[in-house]
Specification:
By secondary structure, the chain is an alpha+beta fold. Strands 9-8-13-12-11-10 form a six-stranded antiparallel beta sheet. Helix 12 runs parallel beside helix 13. The N and C termini lie far apart (132 Å).
Length: 785
């Protein structure tokens, strides 16, 4: 049989009469839907006769083939399929169903010029146009396609190559009036006659708008979950969110966070949010050039009442609002009203950021008239996005709070200003990183006009790193009081670090500190201005750099390196000694001050970048300017830890503030030493009381050296911020403080010294030992006149 494009039987063959038992007179002119019906499974579509002469139903599989008429119309030939037919009979059944207008598919038959010959399609995007009005026009003229050129090329490729196009997506909007976007899955097949001549193209369109909206929502949710929340920075978290939502889900997205939450200062407030609680605009993004923000990012202000934003924060429910130009709440918030009009926004979706009953902020999404309005399904998706974002913000808030406390603790443990000495001028640079908390520097005076320079960094971050840093800094100060050599001091500091590591390992299994390995870097240097020598020992720290007063720079020999503190095994710590001239600058830095690509192992050389930064230094510039220069050159490429740089410029110690005398090892040495001390203290104008105490100290120390020490002996007095007295001999025997009984005739020497001096100790060298004392010098009081 032959069926017209309108679905009417126009020809009925003798074979059809015999097979179905109906004459041509009974069938021709009747709608095909009255003659046959479809039944059976999807894999075997069968056509069943409705009216057979004997009243019985018969089933048979059919094939359908288009017949192009001379007037460019198309009829459809329907005939019984052979069992060995290579073409599935389901194709014919599908086309027949489309012809009867009972399918959601749209059928377009195009000629060789891609003009519509026949169409059976009903959709809102056509408006009032009927399928008959589409004949003779191109698809690109009929439909408002998002990519008309691409669709045209696709159909022409099918026409020329014969290769079908299967289900590419085509986006269409109503052509004569604003309306939502539709998505169609289009399949195109070339039409050939039995002789192989090309007749045209058959394009079948299936409306998949609902399916694509669901897929789009799922994609947005998956993207947000994959990208938002990986950073512990609150601002970055919110910025990642708006980047995910614009333009895929919103034309404009704004995230505002409760100001105290953004600063990490306190727990989020319970809902509903009070009217006086300020919000900070943390992130915003707009997809169009017309965006005119009401407030810049970083602006802090309370939400205006009554507005949809305030209502969402009051009852903690989302608000889906159509933005008419004369919305009644615009008068309450003129700034936002102006921004909304300028951006062309037509719908607002505001959702509170809530976690466990506390309010963290507000998410505001806008769509313009160029985008489909939000639906209730979009509201539910937004709530899911808001829940994930609220959890991510709370995690970042907790980290920010802990980091803020750790930084405050760390700064409280660091010296407020580096302690410059008479012969050493110091300056420092501290750039605390988000992943730091254990970096520290220190400078303090040692006996004999010497200066200790320290730079260190504890691995890890947060409060644990800061508290460990404070512990190690305290231990280092205590060890320095024993006047240990730098390598021995680091060995003792390593023992203390191992002890702290054992305490961590003994914590309960659930304690997070137990899982953090304790290790630290440290560099300890002692500068002696009288010998112009600086002794350096390192524990996993990069070697220092010297900028000489003549403009040249060099790296300190890396042989003084040793393992990081906390290493139970490894080579012992070593020292190296360098000579510094007047005006030389010694630069000590933590690993984070170096470029991230630079290895920081024990034997790693100092990077050229630090040398180049120091080479740009001029001797007449201040050390603080040099610190800034290093920061400008290196900080952009540094590790995320604490970047700390300590600079020390050496000066000549005044020669007239030092006096040294050799002494004979005989009983008269004590008297001779007192005479020398008295004369020099008088020349220095030392207070009489301090002078008398110093003479007595000198006498006791020299007497002990004569009695228990070995020749040669020497006495040295140093007038600096303290008055230092040193007696040197070559014996390694350690003097011991005794508490003599009343009837004892001796043993009170060091006891007397300890009572008269503010501090005393013993320093061992390669050629013996030095017993030293320190006394405070009274500050001159200005005359009242």
């Amino acid at each position: 049989m032959v069926v017209s494009g309108g679905g009417t039987v126009v020809q009925w063959s003798r074979e059809a009469e015999e097979l179905l038992g109906r004459t041509a007179t009974e069938v021709v002119g009747q709608p095909v839907a009255r003659v046959v019906s479809r039944t059976g499974s999807a894999s075997a579509l069968r056509v069943v006769s409705q009216l057979r002469g004997n009243g019985a139903a018969s089933g048979l599989e059919l094939r359908v083939r288009p017949l192009l008429r001379a007037d460019d119309s198309v009829d459809w030939a329907v005939f019984q399929a052979r069992t060995d037919s290579p073409i599935p009979s389901a194709v014919g059944a599908a086309v027949l169903g489309a012809l009867s207008a009972q399918s959601l598919m749209g059928l377009h038959v195009l000629d060789q010029h891609l003009r519509i010959v026949r169409a059976t399609f009903t959709t809102p995007i056509l408006g009032d146009e009927s399928p008959e009005q589409l004949v003779g026009r191109r698809l690109t003229d009929v439909y408002n396609l998002s990519d008309p050129a691409g669709t045209e090329n696709l159909l022409r490729t099918v026409l020329e190559s014969g290769a079908p196009a299967r289900e590419p997506l085509v986006r269409v909007r109503p052509k004569h009036a604003p309306g939502p976007e539709y998505v169609f899955s289009v399949s195109a097949f070339r039409l050939d006659d039995p002789d192989g001549h090309v007749l045209g193209v058959l394009a079948v369109a299936l409306d998949v708008t609902a399916r694509e909206k669901v897929r789009r929502r799922v994609g947005v949710l998956r993207t947000v979950r994959d990208r938002v929340g990986h950073s512990l920075d609150l601002v970055t978290t919110c910025q990642d969110l708006v980047d995910c939502l614009v333009p895929s889900f919103a034309d404009v997205a704004v995230v505002e966070v409760v100001d105290s939450v953004a600063r990490g200062e306190e727990e989020p407030p319970l809902g509903p949010l009070g009217r006086d609680v300020p919000l900070r605009r943390v992130a915003a993004r707009g997809g169009g050039a017309r965006q005119a923000p009401a407030h810049p990012v970083g602006d802090v202000r309370s939400v205006t009442y009554p507005t949809p934003y305030a209502q969402a924060l009051t009852d903690l429910e989302p608000r889906l609002v159509v933005l008419d130009s004369d919305a009644p709440w615009f008068a309450a918030d003129p700034a936002r009203a102006h921004a909304i009009r300028a951006s062309g926004a037509r719908v607002l979706l505001a959702a509170p950021l809530v976690l466990r009953g506390t309010v963290l902020g507000l998410l505001s999404l806008y769509r313009t008239d160029e985008t489909d309005p939000y639906t209730e399904d979009d509201v539910q998706l937004t709530l899911d996005l808001a829940a994930h974002t609220a959890l991510s913000i709370d995690i970042a808030r907790r980290y920010t709070r802990e980091h803020t406390i750790a930084v405050a603790l760390q700064r409280g443990l660091l010296p407020a200003h580096p302690s410059s000495q008479t012969a050493v001028e110091t300056a420092h640079l501290v750039a605390l990183g988000d992943q730091g908390g254990g970096g520290w520097y220190d400078t303090f005076a040692l006996p004999g006009a010497r200066t200790a320079l320290v730079v260190g960094d504890v691995n890890g971050q947060g409060l644990h790193a800061a508290t460990t840093m404070g512990q190690l800094r305290t231990v280092l100060h205590s060890l320095a009081a024993f006047d240990l050599e730098p390598d021995e001091l680091l060995a003792r500091l390593n023992d203390a670090t191992l002890f702290l590591a054992q305490e961590r390992a003994a914590r309960p299994p659930g304690d997070p500190m137990r899982r953090q390995e304790l290790a630290a870097h440290c560099l300890y240097a002692v500068y002696d201005p009288l010998a112009r020598a600086c002794t350096i020992a390192r524990a996993g720290q990069p070697p220092p750099v010297i900028a000489h007063s003549d403009g040249s720079t060099e790296q300190v020999d890396s042989s003084c390196g040793g393992p990081m503190l906390g290493s139970a095994e490894g080579p012992p710590f070593a020292t190296t000694c360098v000579t510094l001239s007047e005006g030389d600058v010694l630069a000590l830095g933590t690993p984070a001050i170096l470029p991230a690509s630079t290895p920081t192992s024990v034997l790693a050389p100092t990077p050229d970048a630090l040398l180049q930064a120091l080479e740009a230094w001029a001797p007449d510039r201040s050390l603080q300017e040099l610190c800034d220069e290093v920061l400008y050159r290196l900080k952009g490429n540094t590790d995320p830890g604490d970047a700390i740089l300590l600079l020390a410029r050496t000066h000549t110690f005044p020669a007239d503030h030092v006096a040294t005398w050799p002494l004979d090892q005989d009983p008269t040495a004590a008297g001779t030493a007192r005479i020398h001390a008295h004369r020099r203290l008088t020349d220095w104008g030392v207070d009489e009381e301090v002078g008398y105490a110093t003479e007595l100290i000198v006498s006791e120390l020299v007497t002990n050296a004569v009695r228990y020490g070995s020749a040669p002996l020497s006495l040295r007095l140093i007038k600096d911020r303290f008055l230092t007295c040193e007696v040197h001999d070559t014996s390694p025997t350690t003097p011991r403080l005794r508490h003599a009984r009343t009837i004892d005739e001796g043993g009170r020497g060091l006891f007397i010294v300890a009572q008269l001096a503010q501090n005393w100790g013993v320093r061992y060298t390669s050629d013996g030992k030095t017993v030293w004392t320190e006394q405070s010098l009274p500050t001159a009081t200005p005359h009242p006149g």
